Each structure stands twice: as structure tokens, then as C-alpha cells.
Amino acid sequence: GQCIVACPVGALYEKESIDEVWRAISSPEKYVVVQTAPAIRSALGEEFGMAKGTRVTGKMVAALRRLGFDKVFDTDFTADLTIMEEGTELINRLQSGENLPLMTSCCPGWVKFIEHFYPDMLNNLSTCKSPHQMEGALIKSYFAQKMSIDPRNIINVSIMPCVAKKFESAREELSMEAMQDVDYVLTTRELARMIKEVGIDFVNLPEEDFDNPFGESTGAGVIFGVTGGVAEAALRTVFEILAGKELETVDYNIVRGMEGIREAQIDLPNGLTITSVVAHGLGNAREVMEMIKSGEKEYQFIEIMACPGGCVTGGGQPIINADYKMDNDIRLQRAKAIYDEDEAKVLRKSHKNPYITRLYEEFLGEPNSETSYKYLHTHYVKREKFWK
Ligand code: SF4
């Protein structure tokens, strides 16, 4: 099934962590925090017999609370934060002309692919950690300070649609003072198993809200779950920053869709034009990289997701077809759930998130500040060409 795409990068780490998470929840000295990626809400319901692409955000939060997590946070919040950091990086690189094209770095399947096969282009990757890693780092610093909790007693659990995220969370460079940003990654399927283990009647749960300060997100944070979403979220913010005023446009349909490689020429408010490309599936990623290497194409901004369709059909998501394949219908239904949630949000641009503003005021200073670099950015390593 989908694992053909997602597993080669995470196979060795495709270890279940359910027992460890139960142990953490039941130990009184541990403060156990959970966060959920944008794509989980579009698919978790399928494990409980709900129709494909039913949006279950509120029930998912209610279930996590009943499992015993001390805080239930949303990775969408740090998706908004990623846009602040990566959008600023993009503007700086466009101005300096250095390390272009800027390539997104939130998909660990793609990051590992480039580390293995195109290591001479590692400087093109955004230095932003992926959103759940940013959130993990902030929970053990900003949040721990606010709550007066010893970060060593915090256990961070991420619910991800992805098997490659298990590998990512174990990367040495994603830790500080011998503490990993994220301690355990559970897939959507593992979460469903935990909910079933304790017999929660998921379908009839009430709808509940995430906890703050990492519970509010804009529509831009939500669309990270689908191919083209990161590019669109970045455009919503970069456009307004460059224009220096509020703009009417929110939907950038030009980067949406299920076409494998989608190019777009976008005229920015400052008179510049950027050429962006969105690709999903590693075969398409390779094609894009080869076109860049040969000089056939020149881009300024590139979004790549390893899984066809993006995270909505990631390797850790429910597999509902008898032949274990994700088909286009599942992709489209789940993508629709994501776009519906985006549209239902009052705020749809990352820089409008009031909790993001507060986080910069209280802790980070400004995007790409020294503190941001300390907690939210990372680096990459050249790896052997063949899987080891
Ligand atoms: Fe994981 Fe999403 Fe990348 Fe797939 S597209 S490998 S689910 S981050």
C-alpha cells in the first residue's frame, strides 16, 4: 500500500510505541502532552466506520483527553509558525538571491530522500524543523517555563499520519540538552488502536476544543495536510508581508490539485515574480530535481511531499480498501475535509493567529531571530546513497 512510498525512509523505525505511551500516561511524575497533525482529523473517523473524509477534529480531541493526556495540542499551531519562519526565509532568500530555490522541509520522507540522493542541494532546504518538532521544542521550553514544569518530566507524543516521522523524531539534531523534542510518534492507526483498547465510543463523543497556548490555528495551518497546502499557506502570508497591507485573496487555487507536478508563476506585490512548483510522490520529486540539475527549469520555491496526495494519505493513515491501496477517491475526500476546515476558520492566514503574535512577543522576538534559530531550526546531513 502507501508504505511503498513512505516506509523506505522509516522502515527501521516503524516501531510501535503504544506500550511506552501508556506507561508514560500512568506514571504520576510524567506530564504527557499530545499533539495531532492536520491530516489526522480527516481520516481517524474511518477507523470507527465513519464515511471517508469525515472531519472528526472535536471528537479526536475528546478521545485524547479521555485517554489521559495532560494537554491536547494542535500541530496546526506550529504549522502557522512554520509559515512565519519559512515565509521570512523565502523573502530573505529572494532578496539576497542565495540558496534558491527554497525547498520545504516539513516532510521527513522528502528530507531523507534529498539527503541520500541530492546532498549537494541540502542548502536549498528550508532550515525550519517540521511543525511537530517545533512544537515539541516549544513545549519543553516556553510552555515548561510558563507552567513551571521541569522539561525532563515532560513526555511529548505526536499523532502523525506518517511512518517517516518516527525516524525524524529520533534524529540527533532534533534534541536539546539530551532531550528529544518529541519522545514518541504514534500513527493514526496506532491512536485508533488505543481508543479501541479502552473501549471509547468514538462516534458518540462530544466535540471538544484543543488546549492553549498551542490549540488555535488558522486555515493556513490546516492545509499543510494536503499537497500544495504549504505553498498556499506561505503565499497567503508572504503576499501580505510584501504588500504591507491586508489582501482580499485567500485561496490560491493555482497550487491546488492532484496533478503530480504543478508549476505556477506568481506575481508578487513588490513587482517580483516567483516561479513555484509543487510535487507529490518521490518519483515526481526526482523528476523536478533532475530538471533543476540539468538547468531545464529554474524555480524559486518548491514544495515536495513524499506521499501522493500529501499527508492525508500518508503511510500511517487508516487503510480502508481491501487491497491495501490508497486511491484517488480517498485522497480527494480527505483533502476536501481539510479544505472545508480551512474555509470554516475565521482566521485563514498564519500571521493573523493571535497566539503566534503572543509567542513572538513573549519568547521568540521575531521570525528568524536567534531564539527562533535555537528552538525552531535545524540542519541536514549527507547520507549514503543506499539504505543501510
Ligand atoms: Fe509523512 Fe506526510 Fe511526508 Fe507522507 S507526505 S512521508 S505522511 S510527512
UniProtKB/TrEMBL annotation:
Highest taxon listed in the record's lineage: Bacteria
Keyword Iron-sulfur: yes
This protein's UniProt keywords: Iron, Iron-sulfur, Metal-binding
Keyword Magnesium recorded: no
The protein's name: [FeFe] hydrogenase, group A
Organism in which the protein naturally occurs: Alkaliphilus flagellatus
Lineage: Bacteria, Bacillati, Bacillota, Clostridia, Peptostreptococcales
